[in-house]
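Dear H.,

Thanks for agreeing to be a second pair of eyes. The structure we're designing against is below in token form, covering all 172 positions.
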């Protein structure tokens, strides 16, 4: 009899522990941490390959290889690191120009709105704000989408370009 009571009490404790400990992480908890990413350069590489081909048809295998090596080079040379803290502090390192921020910037980050797969946030550094959307792929990867202001080489005019950077969680 005493064993049955202990067994029931233990079962209730286990069930309560499971129920209490199963809250999904908040949006802030999902993004808190150190991340590394680089802009996707596939479109620029394809344009460069087509320009170099001077109107000739480009072999799909060669185009795929150029995109692969272009993205590999971008990851090695154009990567940006985000260190998003639970307190709202943010540290930006590496190719911070990809975000429109000065080199090695410190600032803040805040969540504007969130649902399970999309988090709208605002990154700030040096009195500059970057409204962005984080599309969550997994717990360790997200795509940051934002608008960039770029100068057209031919006309010199500023234009807004949608930009995406894939970030992966860094293991400390």
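And this is the sequence the design step returned. I haven't edited it by hand at all.
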């Amino acid at each position: 009899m005493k064993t049955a009571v202990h067994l029931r009490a233990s079962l209730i404790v286990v069930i309560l522990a499971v129920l209490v400990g199963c809250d999904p992480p908040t949006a802030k908890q999902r993004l808190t941490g150190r991340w590394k990413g680089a802009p996707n350069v596939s479109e620029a590489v394809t344009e460069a390959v087509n320009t170099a081909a001077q109107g000739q048809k480009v072999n799909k295998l060669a185009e795929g290889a150029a995109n692969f090596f272009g993205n590999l080079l971008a990851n090695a040379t154009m990567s940006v690191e985000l260190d998003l803290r639970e307190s709202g502090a943010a540290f930006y390192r590496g190719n911070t120009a990809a975000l429109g921020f000065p080199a090695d910037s410190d600032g803040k980050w805040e969540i504007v709105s969130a649902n399970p797969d999309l988090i709208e946030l605002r990154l700030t550094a040096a009195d500059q704000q970057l409204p962005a959307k984080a599309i969550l792929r997994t717990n360790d990867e997200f795509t940051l989408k934002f608008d960039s202001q770029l100068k057209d080489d031919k006309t010199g005019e500023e234009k807004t370009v949608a930009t995406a950077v894939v970030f992966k969680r860094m293991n400390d």
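Two observations from my side: The chain has a mean pLDDT of 80. The beta strands are 33-39, 80-84, 89-94, 105-114, 118-125, 128-138, 141-151, 158-169.

Warmly,
E.
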